[in-house]
Write a structure and sequence with these properties.
single chain; about 290 residues; globular; Spore Coat Polysaccharide Biosynthesis Protein SpsA, Chain A; alpha/beta; about 25% strand; 3-stranded antiparallel beta sheet
């Protein structure tokens, strides 16, 4: 059994991604790591080339700057990387996602245990969306609580955007992959970066969704969905995370949007009926 990991990144240094830490967090358990590096305005490529590992395989690509439809350019870049994976499994790691060293053994065992179970096409992980700082995370059906990050690399799949996959049984019909749910956490740090970096990201990437940059202010959020994180962070992030020890506080005068009101209602329903109403881009099996 061979395991490939892959990612795509552009302007990772400029936009504050912990992309090196992301790669390093899973490197011990994969046989190769394919990194698709887009034309950047910073030292992203140089930083990746400095990683001392023969497992790293770098691809240089150019983004279609005229593709402004629902982030499809992200799907294109994701698949360029995956198409260069030679493993039985393909482990997708986004530039702001990191895995805890305590979970690596469990991930490896999951792959071994399900290698010959062809009915299992993918593995989904739980997500912890950190927000504002390292001690706060979001719990809301508006933020996906689990998502597929490992796909069987011997089936026909494509990515309509960077987030999920579609499996092709026939040329014209697609469906979500059949996945088992794991207790492993994916630590998502995209919303821990500075507001300056986040607003620069908005300016740089919103065009790929056909939208204008949006002003990002972390305090404009529903305080009720912000929870305190009491666990430990992956050691690979020791030099990247800030030392703020307080839970993030939102603006007390923030007026809830329609979506936030909807999510509050969904949270109440979840509590009463003990269900999870968050979006899932897979069909659960097992």
């Amino acid at each position: 059994m061979k395991v490939s990991a892959f990612t795509f990144i552009k302007n990772g240094e400029l936009l504050g991604y912990p992309f090196i830490e992301s790669i390093m967090s899973v490197l011990p358990i994969v046989d190769e790591f394919v990194v698709n590096v887009g034309d950047s305005e910073d030292n992203t490529l140089d930083q990746i080339l400095k990683i001392q590992s023969k497992k790293i395989k770098v691809i240089k690509s150019s983004w279609n700057e005229n593709m402004h439809n629902k982030g499809y350019v992200y799907g294109q870049q994701k698949m360029i990387a995956q198409f260069n994976c030679s493993g039985d499994w393909a482990f997708y790691v986004e530039g702001d996602e990191v895995y805890h060293e305590q979970d690596l053994k469990n991930i490896s065992q999951l792959l071994k245990d399900n290698h010959k179970k062809n009915e299992i096409e993918a593995i989904a992980f739980k997500f912890i969306h950190f927000y504002g700082n390292k001690n706060s995370f979001l719990d809301s059906p508006g933020w996906y609580r689990s998502e597929v990050r490992i796909i069987r690399n011997t089936i026909r799949t494509y990515a309509p955007d960077g987030l999920f996959w579609v499996v092709l049984n026939k040329n014209k019909n697609g469906r979500y992959p059949k996945a088992i749910e794991s207790d492993v956490n994916c630590y998502h740090y995209g919303w821990v970066r500075s507001e300056k970096e986040m607003n620069l990201k908005s300016k740089k990437v919103n065009k790929y969704w056909g939208s204008k940059p949006k002003k990002i202010n972390y305090s404009n959020i529903d305080q009720k969905i912000i929870k305190k994180f009491t666990g430990s962070h992956p050691k690979v992030l020791d030099g990247w995370l800030d030392q703020n020890s307080e839970i993030f506080k939102a603006d007390s005068g923030h007026k809830l949007s329609f979506k936030e009101k909807k999510h509050r209602l969904m949270l109440a329903i979840e509590k009463i009926f003990r269900v999870d109403l968050s979006k899932k881009h897979y069909s659960k099996v097992g």
